């Protein structure tokens, strides 16, 4: 598997992107003429056993067949070179590409529909006891059906189980979407960082510009403080209770933030986003709280408008989340504290659901499941 992952089966079409750990190409599956996305890992691997222990594959295995999660189709491994490639379904674009060049913000109901789909995909992840750790617009992939786009969460290279105890990886996630506890500690955080990042994504979808485009870590924290406020010493002490050092050696005076209402006039939307970007992770909304917020109260009607364009499985999945809202504790987000239903973070490891990974195609020998 040198330049092309599998010369006999996949034909290279175009390079889609490159990152620190992998690059992504578009290729043609010559056996069925379907286009796919192939993630080529830069790290060499020694064995199939090592590959099957990858966290990314564990997440994808548990979320296989979920309509709002990008689906892994095949795993390619060249034992001689140690090269590994993951073959995924190909979607049309990502959420950032949808909004980046728009002359004005999306229509309110369309923005809400995208945000609801994003929340549902994150709920699918959290309900399976994983958190993503790199939520951003680029990691929500989109595919057009008629006049509607379906949204799927992708890129689980940073994902981990909720049961993993701190310290976790310190400089996780993209800076603009980092929660305060990532900036202020050396890895003491949990699933709440996904909610903060998703709140930033919601804001960006509704306004067409990022909420916290920090130039560096200090600037990032200052931008957060301006909007979210600066909590008291007791909150800082609790957030940093297990920190061995302070990555940002700066002290801040307690102050009240300006909130997001200046940019987002819909009160239900602004209240929801403010609940998601609460400085204190204990006061931050859970993904169930987000789905139960007043902003999404009319999602049933919106969903019926696009029903004819959506694939049946995606419609049923979203309809299921709409139906479950009645069973969720209703939370009207406020700038002050929240009464939230906490998600378990201990003793709930991801369970084996009996679903197998795609066959690992090993070059030069019999395929292994």
Q: If you had to describe this structure to a student in words, what would you say it looks like?
A:
Residues 1-6 and 331-349 have low confidence and may be disordered. β1 (10-18) and β2 (22-29) form a beta hairpin. The chain is an alpha+beta fold and 369 residues long. It has helices at 48-52, 55-62, 95-99, 108-127, 180-184, 192-207, 217-228, 233-239, 267-276, 287-291, 299-306, 312-324; strands spanning 10-18, 22-29, 34-41, 72-78, 83-89, 93-94, 130-131, 140-145, 148-153, 160-161, 360-362. The protein has 12 helices and 11 strands. The relative contact order is 0.14. The protein folds into 2 domains: 10-89, 2-Layer Sandwich (Phosphorylase Kinase, domain 1), CATH 3.30.200.20; 93-296, Transferase(Phosphotransferase), domain 1 (Orthogonal Bundle). The longest helix is centred in the N-terminal third of the chain and has 20 residues, at 108-127. A 6-stranded mixed β-sheet has the order 1-2-3-5-4-11, with no helix packed on it. α4 (108-127) packs antiparallel against α6 (192-207) and α6 runs antiparallel to α9.
How would you summarize what this structure contains?
The chain is α+β, with helices and mostly antiparallel strands. It is built from twelve helices and eleven strands.
Output the CATH topology of the largest domain: Transferase(Phosphotransferase), domain 1
Q: Tell me the total number of β-strands.
A: 11
Outline: globular
Strand order, sheet with most strands = 1-2-3-5-4-11
Number of domains: 2
What is the end-to-end distance? Answer: 19 Å
Judged by helices, strands and strand pairing, the structural class is alpha+beta
What about the largest sheet? 6 strands, mixed
Q: Percent range for helical residues?
A: 25-40%
Strand percentage, roughly?
15-25%
Q: Radius of gyration, Cα only, in angstroms?
A: 21 Å
Low-confidence stretches: 1-6, 331-349
């Amino acid at each position: 598997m040198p330049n092309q992952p599998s010369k006999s089966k996949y034909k290279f079409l175009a390079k889609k992107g490159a990152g620190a750990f992998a690059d992504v190409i578009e290729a043609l599956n010559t056996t069925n003429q379907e286009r796919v996305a192939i993630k080529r890992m830069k790290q060499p691997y020694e064995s199939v056993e090592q590959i099957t222990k990858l966290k990314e594959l564990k997440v994808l295995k548990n979320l296989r067949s979920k309509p709002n999660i990008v689906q892994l189709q095949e795993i390619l491994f060249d034992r001689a070179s140690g090269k590994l490639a993951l073959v995924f379904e190909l979607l049309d674009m990502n959420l950032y590409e949808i909004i980046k060049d728009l002359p004005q913000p999306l229509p309110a109901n369309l923005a809400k529909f995208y945000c609801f789909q994003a929340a549902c995909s994150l709920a699918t992840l959290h309900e399976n006891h994983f958190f993503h750790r790199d939520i951003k617009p680029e990691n929500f992939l989109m595919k057009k059906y008629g006049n509607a786009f379906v949204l799927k969460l992708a890129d689980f290279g940073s994902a981990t189980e909720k049961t993993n105890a701190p310290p976790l990886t310190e400089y996780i996630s993209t800076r603009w979407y980092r929660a305060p506890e990532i900036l202020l500690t050396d890895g003491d955080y949990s699933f709440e960082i996904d909610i903060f990042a998703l709140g930033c994504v919601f804001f960006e979808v509704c306004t067409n510009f990022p909420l916290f485009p920090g130039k560096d870590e200090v600037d990032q924290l200052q931008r957060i403080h301006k909007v979210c406020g600066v909590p008291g010493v007791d909150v800082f002490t609790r957030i940093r209770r297990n920190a061995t050092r302070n990555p940002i050696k700066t002290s801040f005076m307690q102050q009240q933030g300006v909130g997001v209402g200046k940019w987002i006039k819909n009160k239900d939307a602004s209240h929801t986003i403010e609940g998601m970007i609460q400085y204190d992770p204990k006061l931050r909304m859970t993904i169930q709280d987000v789905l139960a917020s007043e902003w999404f109260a009319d999602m049933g009607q919106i969903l019926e408008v696009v029903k004819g364009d959506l694939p049946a499985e995606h419609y049923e999945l979203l309809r299921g989340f709409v139906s479950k809202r009645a069973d969720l504790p209703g939370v009207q987000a406020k700038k002050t504290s929240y009464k939230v239903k906490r998600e378990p973070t201990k003793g709930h490891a991801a369970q084996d659901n009996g679903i197998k990974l795609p066959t690992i195609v090993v070059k030069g020998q019999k395929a292994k499941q």
